[in-house]
Amino acid sequence: MDRIRIRGGNKLNGVIPISGAKNAALPLMIASLLTSDTLTLENVPHLADVEQLLRILGNHGVDVAVNGRRESQTESYSRTIHFTCRTVVDTTAPYDLVSKMRASFWVIGPLLARVGQARVSLPGGCAIGTRPVDLFLDGLQALGANMEIDGGYVNATAPTGGLVGGHYTFPKVSVGATHVMMMAATLADGTTVIENAAREPEIADLAKCLNAMGAKISGAGTSTITIEGVTSLHGARHRVLPDRIETGTYAMAVAMAGGDVTLEGTEAALLDNALDAIRMAGATVSETESGLRVVRNGNGIQPVDVVTEPFPGFPTDLQAQFMALMTRSSGVSHITETIFENRFMHVQELARLGARISLSGQMARIEGVSGLKGAPVMATDLRASVSLVIAGLAAEGDTIVNRVYHLDRGFERLEEKLTRCGAEVERVSD
Ligand code: UD1
């Protein structure tokens, strides 16, 4: 099994190309099930989660053609992928495929909208809480679907004549359930209004693509989304937006290790709240023509308190990385996790490097230390694993991160991107 070895102490200097967003690419790929025409997506990142979804879509009858090309001088490797689902050949998403990645459950929306039925295994994914699917079931029921759970599967059927427009207010903000309901409603008969919808940039990106395919969606990116149903969707070409979590992760890595790095091809508006926290911690972040420049000014890292919230608040997907940064602050900081109930598994691994963190319910208290010391650590989930890399960059000696497959689910060519900026990071295979 692969491991990553980091020799800490080097500053980061140079350019890091930011990839297309994993969390946008996945729903966009799933949207290809809604039409018999070709959907072409540009800037699709090369990640284990994307490869897994390609297998799942293939099982439903989606033909996939991939073109890869080096895009810029810094060799951002952007893939253009053509998806064509002439006919849905299988409406079952089986356990052995869905259990590897939670987002694959989302095929339920397009399958139901296009062919009126879906049998989808209850999902797996990161072990960061119970992550139920009640909001998906309730949302699709509001469109007239009949939803039953049987033998670990959700059996969904649309009424004769297809889904019908409906009004649904989410009792809790859910990114996935908003994606699914929005996709399903595009082909429903009549108008759907979704309230308390997720406002993440990836929701607006999916709506933009669906509208290019002929859907009539307004309000995506706000908490009220209105979808006027149409009878069919057609093909389109769409570019996946930049990955705001990857952007924030490298910005925090620079704040931690020090240096001067341009994050190429990304936008501040995607993560204002996290960038403010990074600035308060002592780094300078400025927008440039090519992206964002992050410089850490040699001073110590300041303690900053953050609370994770749905967008536009501080993202839960940057919580572990920010905690790694705070382990070196010059005081005490607090991080409160409000989205997932079990998302502090990195705490005990950071402690192995010398961090002083105590937990009380959903709040972590981090007492900054003057230095971390390298050690073997275990990646526990996708974002937690990269927090260990950030800590390793500033630790004395070698940090070995085991179970790197978590990292490969969501970070494209991480060791190459960091090495090009002067870090000593290498992948070790047994
Ligand atoms: C998405 C992101 C993930 C991110 C998360 C929160 C993708 C592929 N993944 O995950 O990286 O961490 O948003 O920003 O985009 N919930 C319910 N019932 C449901 C659905 C969700 O109670 O039916 C709860 C969850 O357990 C969680 C909260 O709602 O506590 C938010 O989850 P949700 O926004 O749905 O996360 P995902 O879409 O799975």
TrEMBL record:
Pathway: Cell wall biogenesis; peptidoglycan biosynthesis. Coiled coil: none annotated. InterPro entries: Enolpyruvate_Tfrase_dom (IPR001986), Enolpyruvate_Tfrase_sf (IPR036968), MurA_subfamily (IPR050068), RNA3'P_cycl/enolpyr_Trfase_a/b (IPR013792), UDP_GlcNAc_COvinyl_MurA (IPR005750). Residues 7-418 form the Enolpyruvate transferase domain. It catalyses: phosphoenolpyruvate + UDP-N-acetyl-alpha-D-glucosamine = UDP-N-acetyl-3-O-(1-carboxyvinyl)-alpha-D-glucosamine + phosphate. Cell wall formation. Adds enolpyruvyl to UDP-N-acetylglucosamine. This is UDP-N-acetylglucosamine 1-carboxyvinyltransferase. It comes from Pseudorhizobium tarimense. The gene is murA.
